[in-house]
Amino acid sequence: MRKFVVLLLILVVSGCTVMAVNNWQQKYGSPEVKQRIVDSQTDQGQFYHDAVKPVLESRCVVCHGCYDAPCQLKLTSPAGIDRGVSKQVVYDGTRLVAATPHRLFVDAQSTSQWRDLGFSPVLNEYPESPTNNLAASVLYNSLLVKKSNPLPQVAKLGSEYDFSLDRSANCASIENYRDTVAKQPNLGMPYGFPAISDDEFNVLQHWLMQGAKMASLAPVDEYTHQQVKKWEAFLNQDSAKHQLMSRYIYEHWFLTNIYFTNANDVTYYKLVRSKTPPGEPIEVIATRRPFDDPKVERVYYRLTRNQASILAKNHIPLALNNKELARLHQLFLETNYEVAQLPSYQVEVASNPFKSFAQIPTEVKYQFLLDHAQTIIMGFIKGPVCRGQVALNVINDHFWVAFVEPKRVGNANMDEFFHQMDDYLAMPAQEQSNALPISSWLKYSRLQAKFLEQKNAKMNTSFADGKGLDMSLVWQGEGHNDNAALTIFRHFDSATVVKGFVGQAPKTMWVLDYSLFERIHYLLVAGFDVYGNVGHQLITRLYMDFLRMEGEQNFLAFLPPEERKKLNAHWYREAPKSLVEYLKSNEQFNQPSGVEFSSDDLQGELYSKIKQHLAAVLNTRYELDNDGVSQALEQLNRLPNTAVEQLAQVSFILVKDGDKHTSYSLLHHNAHLNISSLLNEGAQRAPKEDTASLVNGFIGDYPAVLFYLEKEQVDEFVGKLQAVNSEKSYIALKNQFAIRRTHPEFWRYSDILHKTAKQALTVEYGIFDYNRFENK
């Protein structure tokens, strides 16, 4: 009976949809995909670039830009606008079978192909007329609904607004849109924010009436054109050594936004695999992972223009120039090694970099990773794996990262060790995108245990009696590379990595060696498929537990053995028995530290020694200035816990002094008894141990709160925030100093925020995402 009722409901809904479509076709005619792209030099093209695109970026892309944009509506490019909406959820941790990928510019090359994949338009695809272009546009109607139903004048919106990340988005087609908004008039866009201004509305209305023509990108300058040719020539030489180098580089750079220094304008490119050589149109090889079988005789590595607006969430800038070219030549080509045969693309080889790139010496690969450490780590911080709490509850909220000196791990002895260990270093991506979680988990946990056993044995020999286990083991960035010290912040369901040791001394720290650094990349970036099934996502998350603990153990090795046990016990309070036993197995490494200590606070002293060791390369951009405003705000680093508990994960503070705005980030760090729980993080929380960090500039891509202060208000703001001890007092603080999502001038302040960020961040700048903006 239940099956019959469900089937009946499906038939009724389907029937209603068919009736709605038929009614529209009777009224307007048959829909078909339009050709909307015009040359950038035409009047319509210039209008799109000069008038339309700025409105879309500043008012729409702030919520409709990334993988988790509602209804997959990505308004960051003409292709995304034309593609439209889909009801399919990208982030689904419960699906039993891997989904079909829907990556813009990759999995379909035309709007017609997107229609075949189930996407419906937000622009008119019925016969054109100014009236039809508005009436049949979901984009226009959603703006009109907001104009007709403005936000209520309240501080906090009611329960009719759902801002949860996993909310059921209503992805209505134009044929059903009117019925949908009749029931839910609050669905007008921008959702949960004030309507756009009349001038902005008129710009979009005019554009839509004229057929929503969108411009192709203007040609690049000659310098940039020549740089593309030079780099494509470098990456596509014929020798096996060149081809292996390019494959390695591609598998680590495929997420980056590449640009060329010294160009007149910054133009971003993506490194892609193509079926065609330089000089011919690019034919992207669409695979789930960068190391999947391309199914062509020869892969070519090409640079294609990034067509989309730059978002803070996924912006990983990478500068290329002659110095970088020389460095790659020195590392990969001048180093004396032979490439007898190119590795296969069989999954057990391609998913395991210790097999696929075994012919490249360890020191070469590791030095490449170190040269770009922040960029590589950004891959798993800003990549698609890092959306959502379950993806990120594998790391602490605030920790520092340092690296092992490459000369200590880059020699023939280590090359042979990794060759012997390569089977143990197999990655979960070997199971591809449909994995059985239990059997796969058991398989990789056993392999990791065997590897650690061999690693500990080697370390016991290498560091017998503590010899060499001292600060000389920590990479100093050759005295100039500030990638040597990094800080990672987790913001509950997003994260950030920055250069320098930022904030107060953290609870934990990682020290990465080559094998650990490489495995993290191939686990969370190259080997992760956001469209994979629940088993794939589960074993990826669980395997990262091992890698995190291995990084922590590398740090603890610098401390005396008893202190290692003490800190482990504190970091993993109330951990499951199986995890406690696993941690005990790590005690197989039992050599003393070669570091001399003189205080009772051994961890704090070790932090100081590492900072002193890296003093020449420590990036200090996030340290507060000595001016009165910064020093007054500095007190927020010592907020009482009652105040910290009320804070959002990421709050931006803008201080106005005349015509100038200075920016700060106030970050809430969630404390945990341990972070070993996959689905019940709340039970492991220790909120009374939460802390906050106040830093100069912008850290975080998803601001939840914007505090806007006149310079004269800073002392009052600090005093009142220090006194916050309840939600009521926090709301009172926001009443006075915050720009809420319901503020009638919200968009003016949003513009100030982005203008300030663009001036401060330059090539690192990207549009912030408001999907986590607080409703409080």
TrEMBL record:
Keyword RNA-binding part of the UniProt annotation: no
InterPro entries cross-referenced by the UniProt entry: Fatty_acid_cis-trans_isomerase (IPR010706)
Keywords assigned by UniProt, alphabetized: Isomerase, Signal
Recorded GO MF terms: isomerase activity
Pfam families: CTI
Signal sequence coordinates: 1-20
Protein name: 9-hexadecenoic acid cis-trans isomerase
Organism, as annotated: Pseudoalteromonas piratica
